[in-house]
Amino acid sequence: MAGIWSFTGRHRILHFTWFAFFLTFVIWFNFAPFATAVKAEMGLSEAQMRTLAICNVALTIPARIIVGMVLDRFGPRITYSCLLIYAALPCLAFAMAQNFTQLVYSRLALSIVGCGFVIGIRMVAEWFSSKEIGLAEGIYGGWGNFGSSGAAFTLPTIAAATAFMVGGQLNWRFAIALTGIVAAVYGVIYFFNVSDTPPGKVYQRPPSSAGMEVTTQRDFWFMLAMNVPLVAALGVIAWRLNKVQFISTTTFGVICVLLVGLYLFQAFNAYKANRPLMTGEKRYEAGDRYQFSQVANLELAYIASFGSELAVVSMLPSFFERGYGLAAGVAGAVAGTYAFMNIPARPGGGWLSDKVGSRKWTLVMTLLGTGIGYLIFASLGQGVPLAIVVAATMAASFFVMAAEGATFGIVPLIKNRVTGQIAGNVGAYGNVGAVCYLTIYSLLPQGAASDRTFFQFLGVVALMVAFLNAFLLKEPTGSHEGEQEEVHSSPVTALSEQQYKP
Q: What CATH number should be reported for the domain whose range is 9-477?
């Protein structure tokens, strides 16, 4: 990674790709800086605002699964470009919304953009060797994830600077529309400036894009079981929309039936993709197998890390207002330090995963730090100096994002040809966690005491997942087949298969 600032070769691909991810996160979080303005202008209730927060992560769950399949089939270059261009449509729709119904529909459509993260995971994995995949994925994820803070820092300024267009009021509609237009333009730029693989490397595709390939019959049933929460989370969102009377009880019942049908359809496609294995026509050699339990453990790790990050980002400013009596502007700035830690922490977690002797124990320790950090943060009272509050916020967030980096330091090493689908499933579980956390938070009474209870809950979940990974996660034993590495400025050369300590 010595040539990271050279903007040539694989580093050029990394820069183009993390900025694509950055834009998707700016779009995904472009509502948060204007929540107060939108609430006042539209006359929304607190329950409606919390519902919009849940809608913002709703369709990201199935989108990450579907995009993972599309990605493995067509490659990251086309997939990322299409997603960025698509992003303009829901942004413009949200910017022109005139009532709560239109806000919900456009926000649901916009939540699909949150799946962009999955695409870059495969792109970066194709261009970087297993020796530095953790750091490379960490830079991609951390710098791109900073888009949430980028939205908070830049969009209010743009809205204020263009206030003259709407009679002096905060021009949130223009700022949100602009994010979509910029993403669409960059989608075209991205398409003409990247390639899926280095010269001479073949892009590996799974035998079928209908469902994830597994390598044992036992793992097939395990995969079906782990797909249940992905569909159940959508049911929770529908239930929440019913509670705020956005949909009727009858419509909610119809949605539940459709979700059962969706699960059965997914199960059928998974069987279709693995039919030779399930009928005994095909048996994988030991060197070509992977354990789905590895995927399941990483899914739980991403619930505890990225799932909690999504939930915390949406409620942290109000927590500082209620819990510490800070003014709205100061509370927003302090809350911004949480997302700011993405820049050093997520690459740091990936770097530790590369350099420490064990990727497994790097993940376990960062998850332990996440749990302890949340518990310490929840214990701070109103009398604590602001400097200590800021330090605790940054310390807790460091471990959260480092755990994310450590998680995706392992994901690309499980099975190369299905990296997109594995990343999609792990990423989707982050959103499952966010939906569950935000739903629990929406049921708590408003107040500083409830906020602290919520952080205690996040801490306990992280500690439980850390112990599960300590006992059940296995150290990666394989890497990319036929992977390639640049050595200084020499042409791309093939590396022999790398092995990790058992």
A: 1.20.1250.20
The mean pLDDT of 140-146, rounded to a whole number, is 85
Q: How many whole angstroms separate alpha carbon 311 and alpha carbon 433?
A: 8
- Cα–Cα distance, 53 to 60 (Å, whole number): 13
Task: List C-alpha distances in Å: 20 to 79, 117, 129.
Answer: 12, 9, 21
Handedness of CA 411, 414, 420, 421 (dihedral sign): negative
Query: Taking the model in full, what pTM does it have?
Result: 0.81
Mean pLDDT lowest among 62-76, 78-92, 105-119, 292-306? 62-76
Helix (H) or strand (E) holding 484: strand 484-485
The identity of residue 236, as a single letter, is V
Which contacts qualify for 44-49: CB closer than 8 Å, 24 or more apart? 44/100, 45/244, 46/446, 47/243, 47/244, 47/442, 48/100, 48/244
Q: Are 401 and 144 in contact (CB under 8 A)?
A: no
Pick from 146, 200, 219: nearest CA to 422: 219
| SS3 label, residue 290 | coil
Q: ∠ CA 395-350-417 to the nearest 5 degrees?
A: 140
CA distances from 494 to 4, 20, 483 (A): 20, 28, 6
Q: With a cut of 60, say whether residue 495 has pLDDT above it.
A: no
